[in-house]
Specification:
The protein is of the alpha+beta class and about 400 residues long. It is built from ten helices and 20 strands. It has helices at about 30-40, 60-75, 120-125, 155-160, 165-170, 215-240, 270-275, 340-345, 350-365, 375-380; strands spanning about 10, 15, 20-25, 45-50, 55, 85-90, 95-100, 105-110, 115, 130, 145-150, 185-190, 195-200, 245-250, 260-265, 285, 290-295, 300, 310-315, 330. Helix 1 crosses helix 2 and helix 9 (about 350-365) packs across helix 10 (about 375-380). The model has no long low-confidence stretch (mean pLDDT about 95).
Amino acid sequence: MGTAGGVTNFAGLYGRREGRMEQLVRGVASELLDRIEALGGLNEPQDGMGGRIRVRSYDVAAYKCAADAWLTSHRVGVLFHALACGVHLEDGRIDALLLQTRSGRVAIKAQQVIDASGDADVAALSGAMFTLGDGQGQMLYPSTMFRIGEVHAGRAQAAIGEFGAIESLMEAAAERYAFPRRGAILRPQRNPRQWRANVTQLRNESGAAVDATDALELSAAEMEGRRQIVQYMRFLRAEVPGFEHAEIAEIAAQVGIRETRRVHCQHMLEGQEVISGARFPDSIGLNAWPIEAHVDGAVQWQHFLDPDNAYNQLPYRMLLPLQPAPRNLWVAGRCAGMTHIGQSAARASGACFAMGQAAGTAATLSLRGCFEVAQLQRALKEKGAVLV
């Protein structure tokens, strides 16, 4: 999502601790930031919502190149353009993962498997229990992200101002344009003549959020996202100072999916645990992003109850699927153990970095025999992760 989905900013890395805004998600996230910055592709942190949130925008091309070089430096075997299409189970474990590739179908033998697909593809194929969206047929609405070029930065910044202030301009023009949602986000990139836009909202024929596990709905959503972008550009050029000569610089290659399957895990992170700043003895990292629920026509925010300590811990148990899932399977990212509302916060990139590093470390340690959570926590802290 960070590259093909065109997100263009890291959310949830920064939060307030004892009243000070600081980077709370570190470890592998810090190394990636350093690598992107070395390529000149990282913006300075940007605050929003009265200082309640802070994001870090980046250049998508720099992110791709930094990630490639990072993986290569560790001699990681990479296989792009491959979709999980089956698993071979043996004695309650995944023995091999079946992939459909441009070279045909292949089987990858596996000792440990981490499902970070976002859609819980591997977990679902292996028989793990999951819930699709809220369990009642509704999910967080997806968006198609895009970048806008040829913006007069000074005039645009003065017109739009703070994070989310574009809403007042949209309300004034609502009778002339059919906006898919309120709560649009337009912010400048590292090059101030280019802006990122998070303004679309994708529905299926019934008006519900697109189900990204349905191939036909997902295909229709890609086209609908581009149609909405064309219409929104009409509004920007005609109604918003600084955008009179704006052009579409890039439309993301993939729809930005916020929610599909959520795997049933030993702990399901709840929305109340997020906003109350929950602490857990098996913490493997932090989430500093508030609840951001993309509902029909709007974005609903719920901020942390303690604004001076705006973060919650993430428990290791949310990475461990309940049986009958295979014993050698972890889940990480937006398909991990979270409720519908809890996931609307911890699906952001900051928490995903924390979960991914923890799952990878746990899988590695488990190859050496049984291990305790305390051992995992020590290993994470040695690599720079923040757990408390």
